[in-house]
Amino acid sequence: MLKSDISRQPQTAWEKTDETLLWQQFREGQQEAFQGLVQHFYRELHFYGGRFTRDADLLKDCLQDLFLNLWTYRHKIVQTPYIRPYLYKSLRRKIYREVMRHSSTVSEGSITFDDVSSEEITAEQALIRTELSDYQTARLNALLAQLSDRQREAIHLKFYAELSNDEIADILAVNKQSVANLLHRGLSRLRESWPSLLSLVGYWLLVAERIADELLTVR
């Protein structure tokens, strides 16, 4: 599930501004901007979508449908600084619809998150930002597998997509407090099961836990 090499670095202010510019130019009908938008987001959206299904064709169709609809209805799409959560939420909805359409035994609540092979690089790599041994990687993966689907998805959206709690709440269709609860419980369980984990994952886990704790005290 988890590999120690980090393929996605923290997003800079310039990259966020560039996304907004691409979005604006795409809405104006600039094909180059649209292609840039696809290239910019395709890999991480494919990565996120792959956590819900092993059906590569279904995922590819959902991604193609997502971007085709964006281009077709570009004049009706509003300018927004929340591009990444908009795309994540749209893809999530499409995958859920397609998975349920192809299986009469699956409901939205039963579609699991993290349905990937052990050879794939997963989003939780953004949680550790350091080199782990094979043993440590395997142990962390085993602990992550014990979390609920919602906890794993919240961690994915927080550490890989680098979304705010408000944005995660919108994607998961829950309130901000529920997101804080998911992150707090998931990260606390990791630390309780592996007390020395904090020294390995360092700053990112520390900050996330502090934020979650603070949010839990605000009612």
Automatic annotation (TrEMBL):
Molecular functions (GO terms): DNA binding; sigma factor activity
Entry's transmembrane regions: none
InterPro entries for the chain: RNA_pol_sigma-70-like, RNA_pol_sigma-70_dom, RNA_pol_sigma70_r2, RNA_pol_sigma70_r4_t2, RNA_pol_sigma_r2, RNA_pol_sigma_r3/r4-like, WH-like_DNA-bd_sf
Any Gene Ontology biological process: DNA-templated transcription initiation
Keyword terms, alphabetized: Sigma factor, Transcription, Transcription regulation
Residue intervals of the RNA polymerase sigma factor 70 region 4 type domain: 139-190
Keyword Transcription: yes
Superkingdom, taxonomy of origin: Bacteria
Pfam families from the UniProt entry: Sigma70_r2 (PF04542), Sigma70_r4_2 (PF08281)
Domain RNA polymerase sigma-70 region: 37-103
PANTHER family reported in the protein's UniProt record: RNA POLYMERASE ECF-TYPE SIGMA FACTO (PTHR43133), RNA POLYMERASE SIGMA-70 FACTOR ECF SUBFAMILY (PTHR43133:SF46)
Sequence similarity: Belongs to the sigma-70 factor family. ECF subfamily.
Protein name: RNA polymerase sigma factor, sigma-70 family
Organism listed in the record: Spirosoma endophyticum
